[in-house]
Design goal:
This protein has a single domain (about 15-205, about 210-405), classed as MFS general substrate transporter like domains (Growth Hormone, Chain: A). It is built from 16 helices and no strands. The protein has helices spanning about 15-35, 40-45, 50-55, 55-80, 80-90, 95-100, 105-135, 140-165, 170-190, 195-205, 215-245, 250-280, 280-300, 305-330, 340-370, 370-395. The termini are far apart.
Length: about 425
C-alpha cells in the first residue's frame, strides 16, 4: 500500500491545517487565562506593592519563550515538528499545579517559565507546520489564520477569566482553566497531529539556486517584532494595574484585556491575506504607527474606561497588521530547509521583547509612573516602524512581483 502523494496548499491539506488552527487556539487560551487577572493575584493575594516584582512573571515567561523559540528552530528538523509539539504541551501540565499550590509569588514566576517553554514549542511548531502545509502562494493567509486562532483563544479566556473572577477567586480561575486546556491540548497533539517533514522536502525540490539576502530581512523584522512584543508585555502586565489604579473593576479590566487580542485575532484573518497581495512592508509600518497611536490614546484618556476600550481596539488592529506579516516576510526570504531555524531566530528576538517590555514597564512605572512609561513605549513603537522603512531602503533588496521564489526582499511584493 503506497502513501498518498504530498501536496502543498490549504485546500489539499485542509483537515490537518484546520486541526492545527484549532490547536493553536488552545495554545493562546493558556496565555489568555493570565492576561486580565494574574497581575491582580500578585497585588491582592501576595500583597506585592512593586510593579517590577509583579511583572517578574512576564519576564520569566518572555525569557523562557524566547530561548525555547531559538532551540525549537534548531531542533525542528532533527527531532521532528510533532515531537516538539507534544513536548511543548506536556510541559504545560505543571503550570496550573504550580499556580494552584504556590505559597509565594516566586512559584507563580516558575510556573510562567513552564508556560514560556510551552508557548515556545507548541506555538512555534504550529506556525512552522502550517507554513509547511500551505506552500508559498498563500503563506500570509495561512499565518493570518494561525495567529488569528491563537489570539482569539487569548481573547476568549481573557474575557472569561475577568468575568468569572468577579465571583470566583482569580487564582482559582487561572489554575482550573489552565489544567483543562493543558490536558485537552496534550491529547490532541499526541493522537491527531501528523508531522510535516514530507511537505518540507517536497517544497525544497522546487527551489534551485535562489540567492536570498536573509540577514537584512531578518534584522528588520526582528527589531519590529521585539518592539511589538515590548508593548504587548506592557499591555499584559502594566495596563491592568494602570486601569485598576484609576478605579476600573475586574470585569472592566477583563473586557479591555479581551478587546485587544480579539481585534488582533479577527483582524489577522484579513491582514495575512492582504499581505500576500500588497506586500509586507506597508502593513508592517502602518501597524507599528497604529500601535503607537493606541498607546498614546491610553495615556491621554487618563485610565478612563471608554478611551481604554478604544485604545485596546486600536492596539489590536495595529498588531494584526504586523504580526502575521512579519513571520511571512521572514519565511519569504529563506529556503524551506532553513525555515524553522530562521523563524526560530526571529521569534527569539521578538519574544525578547516580553522581557524588555516587562522590565521597562515595571521599573519605569515604579520610577516615573505608569502614564509616562506608556507614553515612552508609544514613541519607541513609532520609531521602530520608521526603522523598517530605513532598513529596507539602505539594504537595496531587489524586487520582483512574478513569484514567491523571486521575492528575495521578503518585505515587498
Amino acid at each position: 500500500m503506497t502513501s498518498a502523494p504530498v501536496r502543498l496548499g490549504l485546500r489539499a491539506n485542509a483537515a490537518q491545517f484546520s486541526l492545527l488552527v484549532g490547536l493553536n487556539a488552545l495554545v493562546g487560551a493558556m496565555v489568555g487565562l493570565e492576561r486580565s487577572v494574574l497581575p491582580l493575584v500578585g497585588e491582592r493575594d501576595f500583597h506585592l506593592a512593586s510593579n517590577a516584582a509583579i511583572l517578574a512573571f512576564v519576564v520569566a515567561f518572555g525569557a523562557a519563550k524566547a530561548v525555547t523559540n531559538l532551540i525549537a528552530g534548531v531542533l525542528a528538523d532533527r527531532a521532528g515538528r510533532k515531537r516538539l509539539l507534544v513536548l511543548g504541551w506536556a510541559l504545560a501540565v505543571p503550570v496550573p499545579l504550580l499556580i494552584a499550590f504556590a505559597p509565594a509569588w516566586w512559584m507563580v514566576v516558575v510556573a510562567n517559565l513552564f508556560l514560556g517553554v510551552n508557548q515556545g514549542l507548541a506555538w512555534s511548531m504550529t506556525v512552522v507546520m502550517k507554513i509547511d502545509l500551505a506552500g508559498p502562494a498563500r503563506r500570509g493567509l495561512a499565518l493570518g489564520l494561525n495567529e488569528s486562532a491563537g489570539y482569539l483563544g487569548v481573547a476568549a479566556t481573557a474575557f472569561a477569566s475577568g468575568a468569572v473572577a468577579s465571583v470566583v477567586a482569580p487564582r482559582t480561575v487561572v489554575w482550573v482553566g489552565a489544567l483543562a486546556v493543558a490536558v485537552v491540548g496534550t491529547f490532541v497533539a499526541i493522537v491527531f497531529v501528523r508531522d510535516t517533514a514530507g511537505h518540507v522536502a517536497h517544497e525544497q525540490q522546487s527551489v534551485v539556486g535562489h540567492d536570498r539576502p536573509r540577514n537584512p530581512v531578518l534584522v528588520a523584522c526582528s527589531q519590529a517584532g521585539l518592539v511589538n512584543n515590548l508593548n504587548d508585555a506592557l499591555a499584559w502586565g502594566l495596563a491592568p494595574l494602570y486601569l485598576a489604579a484609576h478605579g476600573a473593576s475586574a470585569g472592566e479590566i477583563g473586557l479591555v484585556a479581551a478587546v485587544y487580542p480579539a481585534v488582533w485575532g479577527v483582524g489577522q484573518l484579513a491582514t495575512g491575506w492582504l499581505s500576500d497581495l500588497t506586500g509586507r512592508t506597508p502593513l508592517i509600518v502602518l501597524g507599528m504607527l497604529v500601535q503607537a497611536g493606541a498607546l498614546g490614546l491610553l495615556v491621554a484618556g487618563g485610565g478612563a474606561f471608554s478611551p481604554a476600550v478604544m485604545a485596546a481596539a486600536l492596539l489590536g488592529l495595529g498588531t494584526a497588521l504586523v504580526y502575521p506579516t512579519l513571520i511571512a516576510a521572514v519565511s519569504d526570504a529563506v529556503d524551506p530547509r532553513d525555515r524553522a531555524r530562521s523563524v526560530g531566530i526571529y521569534r527569539f528576538w521578538r519574544d525578547v521583547g516580553f522581557v524588555a517590555g516587562a522590565l521597562a514597564a515595571g521599573f519605569g512605572a515604579d520610577a516615573l509612573g505608569s502614564g509616562p512609561t506608556i507614553a515612552a513605549v508609544a514613541g519607541l513603537t513609532a520609531a521602530s516602524g520608521l526603522a523598517v522603512v530605513a532598513m529596507y531602503r539602505s539594504s537595496r533588496w531587489p524586487l520582483s512581483p512574478t513569484s514567491p521564489w523571486t521575492m528575495p526582499s521578503g518585505l515587498v511584493r
